[in-house]
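Thread: sanity check for a docking pose with adenosine-5'-triphosphate

Original post by kr_44:
Hi all, I'm comparing my docking run against an independent structure prediction. Below are the sequence and the ligand SMILES. Could someone generate the full complex and paste the structure tokens? I mainly care about where the ligand ends up relative to the chain.
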Amino acid sequence: MTAIDIQKLDVSYGDTKVTRDIGFAVAEGESFALVGESGSGKTTVLKAIAGLARTWTGSISVFGKPRSHGIDRDFARQCQMVFQDPYGSLHPRKTVDAVLSEPLAIHGVGGDHGKRVEAMLDAVGLDRKFRFRFPHQLSGGQRQRVAIARALMLEPKLLLLDEPTSALDVSVQAEILNLLKRLRKEQGLTYLMVTHNLPVVSFLCDRLAVMRHGRVVEIADVDQLKRGALTNPYSRELIELSATPSQT
Ligand SMILES: Nc1ncnc2c1ncn2[C@@H]1O[C@H](COP(=O)(O)OP(=O)(O)OP(=O)(O)O)[C@@H](O)[C@H]1O
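Reply from moderator J.T.:
Ran it for you. Here is the predicted complex with adenosine-5'-triphosphate included:
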């Protein structure tokens, strides 16, 4: 089944169109990356899918269902977004327990919430002692684990990942990437991920779309990326930049 099908997507902020004629499809279970220079519109595509950027034309379907332009409760159970900055994305005065229980309460999920919270802490590799702590008592990596746990509480099938490791220390990035890889396998998740980092794409993704100036310029298998066999001149430039030691 197709998890995401996007056709002719133009997204605007006010009068400014920031993506043009975007088209790609992501299969269920696939991990698909959006790469490209800053400002090329990658995050905007995720926001349109999530209902956070509401002015768009074209079509977005998620698991065969056309997406509306706003927040949709049924959709939230299937698809969740994880943001770049785990410092900003967690409410400073809510404990981990409150953060993780909230989606269950909002969506009227029955059963023992405490048990589900503990099981999710186990799943994301966080000791249960963190359950009643606040975000400021956690490290960046631990906070990102909480953000991932929150996204998974409603057992969605699809995660939209916006640079999920770029705000973290290099030493912690690998841990979170390993976690995402394991969770995808264990829970049969589909990922659509925005990143600047081509090694991350090689590690975690099956295919990628290269974006420039709001358009997709190439869609390729990750094997092509690993072999340096992308064909678009701009994609090749990205690979060269990524291989330059001064680039982070
Ligand atoms: N809320 C907003 N209002 C107006 N313009 C915006 C808004 N968010 C993003 N933009 C503009 O839309 C364009 C695309 O931004 P977007 O964040 O999607 O790019 P990106 O490829 O994800 O970049 P980065 O890699 O830096 O996150 C940019 O020119 C940006 O300045």
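The radius of gyration is 18 Å. Hope that helps with the comparison, let us know if your pose agrees.
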